[in-house]
Amino acid sequence: MPDVVMFAMDRRIDRRIVLAAEMLMSRGLTVRLLAPADGAPPDEPKWIQRIGDRAPGVHGAGLRIYRFVRDRIPLPRGVLRWLTWRVIRRPEHAFVALFAPALERAVARVYIAHDLPMLPVAAAARGLHGGKVLFDSHELYAEQEFSTWEKYLWRDVERRHIREADAVVTVNPSIAREISKRYGIGEPIVVQNAERYQRARSAGDRKRLRVRLNIPAEATVFLYQGGLTLSRNIETLVDAFIHVRDKNAMLVVLGDGPALLPLQRRARSAGVTNRIRFHPAVPQAELLNMTRGADFGVIPYRANCLNMELCTPNKLFEFIMARVPIIATDLPEIRRIVAGYGIGLVGNTDDAEGFAGLIEEALAVSAARKREWELSLEQAACELCWEREGEQYFSIVRDLAADSRAAQS
Q1: Does domain 4-194+387-408 sit in CATH 3.40.50.970?
Q2: Topology classification of domain 203-384
Q3: Domains 4-194+387-408 and 203-384 belong to one CATH topology
Q4: CA-to-CA distance for 394 and 382, rounded, in angstroms?
Q5: What order do you get walking across the sheet with 132-137 strand by strand?
Q6: Neighbours of 180 (CB within 10 A)
Q7: What angle do CA 3, 11, 310 make, to 5 degrees?
Q8: Which of 123, 246, 302, 306 is the S-S candidate for 143 at Cβ 3.0 to 4.6 Å?
């Protein structure tokens, strides 16, 4: 019997999931991840098993219609989701139906649900085979930029299913407190979205990025990396470079997404294309090599929903592991780390002028604080690494597996 079966909805499996699975396997546990085949990359490891999308019944048909329309008709994703959940009023039924053909063979001691849609799926697997359920809440799923109707549906799903989990983990203290207060359960255990510990960067790392993107050696590079959607306030970051007076300051936007073309048009219309470089997303294995070449990492997110307000995105920990000082919106959990460790600046990113002011402040103090930031980033990299966070993850899963084994013996 496998020790662990994970459930996820990712096309490209999230770094947190990969690190968790590899940590568990390195400690001798057997792990299998089940995820839909929709758009999967071809180079995945064998422990990832993609399942077909021919879910039976009306709920499976609803998901198939959603995908058909999504891939052929240029409607906004939010509109498509709203229409889908208006038809399927119990979202968990759709996801359980999607995974149903694989659940009969998904025998394990521990089932890990990666984010809220997978929690009813993991509970369904336990109902068939016994075992324990771990709910890994990557975010406040129900508090994303959803319509009021979608938020209502997902809050209801979480309210009805969260007590079915034998343990709950999440990504930062603020989300842990919110989940506990909202559902009257003990605070989830915090396992942060840390990266594996890696070496400090070298002078060669800085040069490599500049050569790849044709950036002058004397330029100060501000890097945004990640998905490109307009909900992430990247357009304000682009506009800020209209107002940044230091012409050696340059922005690199590394990533793909629906906002790419609008952002490129915005840069052209603002006349700042000579100061902004766009580069496609790179595989996770290459990402830190790119990140190390920046002088500052930028997190421009705006508190446009509670999930965003309380976030600690992957890029925060990637910047730390690359030893790159951080410029970020003043959000509670980002401030806790950036200001708490003294590894950058947080401030106003609500408008282009304010964002430009924060960038110019970073430029003004960077020489004086360079050594301080280097030392603080090294401390943060040592303390906020997956080797520490993953150890806690392993302990939780190990204990659940032991309890499951004892109950089944």
Answers
A1: no
A2: Rossmann fold (3.40.50)
A3: yes
A4: 19
A5: 48-51, 31-36, 4-7, 110-114, 132-137, 167-170, 189-190
A6: 15
A7: 85
A8: 306
Residue 255, phi-psi category: left (phi > 0), alpha (psi -120 to 50), beta (remainder): left
Rounded Cα gap, residues 248 and 123, in angstroms: 55
- Whether 56 shows a pLDDT value over 60: the answer reads no
User: Residue 53 in 3-state DSSP?
Assistant: coil
Question: H or E element: which one contains 154?
Answer: helix 148-161
* Cross-strand partners of 220: 249
The whole-angstrom separation of Cα 386 and Cα 406 is: 29
- In 3D space, the residue among 32, 188, 39 whose CA is nearest the CA of residue 107 turns out to be 32
Length of the chain: 409
Domain boundaries, the chain: 4-194+387-408, 203-384
Determine the average pLDDT of the residues in 279-288: 92
How confident is the model at residue 89, as a pLDDT? 67
Give the pLDDT confidence score for residue 11 in this predicted structure.
83
Q: Which of 346, 351, 317, 314 is nearest to 332 (CA)?
A: 346
pLDDT in tens, 313-362: 999 999 999 999 999 999 999 999 999 999 999 999 999 999 999 999 99
Q: Check pLDDT > 90 for residue 118.
A: yes
The model scores a pTM over 0.85: yes
Residue 288 binned pLDDT confidence (cut-offs 50, 70, 90) = very high
Name the residue among 191, 219, 203, 206 with its Cα closest to residue 363.
219
